[in-house]
Design a protein that fits this description.
Length: 311
């Protein structure tokens, strides 16, 4: 019997990056509502009964942009803390020794030093716009560390920065920067009404192509065992306006865009450090360059629109 890796959140943007990997069992909310402890225990019990499990990659989460995180802060806290607690505990009860779970750079303290380094994750309050999500993710780190200390489990956490790619959420109110820009430009092309973007486009951000995450997580399962989280995102920085230009080019949009500086631009930079990952042996040339990732994402979007999440 070949050993299998269970992936939660398998229908999501990052989870879909595993769909062509061997020996992966992808699970989603259709298999089990992970907020329900009884169902989670039954799912893991049956998976362990029929397969030899090498480890679990826990991706499932309630994920969204600033507005969703603020308007539904209680739901973000409840759903995420329940899913995370149930999954980690079910792994432990079923004697699964290796688990890797995802946090996010947006759970770092609002006033952390740059670049963001993993030792700062609990050193101050997260931004108030997403404190429900942030504390639930920070507790996933605490829970992993506690089971390592008490039960000697190899439970680790990894921290990606902004992710984008096929299967993203294209909801304009709830989505992230890149999917919102893609949708606005595509719809501007159909309507002839110029898209409006917040701020002045000068802030710098790091972006990682979602399909780059799966191989990094497999690499970490094989090469990382530590109570401390590890940053895993592509750390090249781009201005928001350059992202808009690249996407306009991939979608063949030649019209105007409007920058509305009545809205905040957001923090100027939020760089993170991946020194730990590089020192472990990960080659940064494995990251998909932004322009290539945007090209694939725009091609996927054109093919799927309007049947994409959030539209
Ligand atoms: P998606 O929103 O694309 O996917 C979320 C996944 O979680 C889906 O498979 C969904 O299943 C599943 N899920 C949600 N609620 C439940 C539930 N109650 N029970 C079972 N499954 C559930 O998220 P991403 O792929 O973008 O994110 C993956 C991970 O990466 C998350 O942990 C997230 O916090 C982290 N991350 C994401 C970033 C980003 O920019 N997207 C940035 C940094 C970290 P279904 O489709 O069936 O509902």
């Amino acid at each position: 019997m070949s050993k299998k890796i269970i992936v939660t959140g398998g229908s999501g943007m990052v989870g879909q990056g595993f769909k062509d990997f061997d020996n992966i069992i992808l699970t989603s909310s259709a298999d089990c509502d992970l907020t329900n402890q009884v169902r989670v225990e039954s799912l893991f019990r049956s998976l362990v009964k029929y397969h030899e499990i090498e480890g679990v990659i826990h991706l499932a989460a309630k994920v969204g942009g600033v507005k969703g995180n603020t308007d539904y802060v209680g739901d973000y806290f409840y759903d995420n803390i329940m899913m995370n607690t149930n999954v980690l505990h079910a792994c432990h009860k079923n004697n699964i020794n290796n688990v890797i779970s995802l946090l996010s750079t947006c759970v770092y303290p609002e006033h952390a030093d740059f670049p963001l380094t993993e030792d700062q994750i609990h050193e101050g309050k997260p931004h108030k716009s997403n404190f429900g999500y942030a504390y639930s993710k920070r507790m996933l780190d605490v829970h992993s560390r506690a089971y390592r200390q008490q039960y000697n489990r190899n439970y680790i956490t990894a921290i990606p920065n902004n992710l984008y790619g096929p299967n993203d959420m294209f909801d304009l109110e709830n989505g992230h920067v890149i999917p919102s820009v893609i949708r606005k430009i595509w719809e501007a092309k159909q309507t002839g009404i110029p898209p409006i973007f917040w701020g002045d486009g000068t802030p710098l951000r790091e972006f990682t192509y979602s399909e780059d995450i799966a191989p990094i997580l497999i690499f970490l399962l094989e090469n990382y065992s530590s109570p401390h989280p590890i940053n895993i995102g592509n750390v090249n920085e781009y201005t928001i306006s350059s992202v808009v230009s690249k996407i306009s080019k991939h979608l063949d949009y030649n019209g105007d865009v409007v920058w509305d500086d009545n809205y905040p631009s957001g923090i100027f930079r939020k760089p993170s450090s991946i020194n730990k990952l590089v020192n472990l042996g990960w080659d940064i040339n494995n990251y998909t360059p932004l322009n290539d990732g945007l090209k694939s994402t725009c091609e996927w979007f054109k093919k799927e629109y309007p049947n994409v999440r959030g539209v």
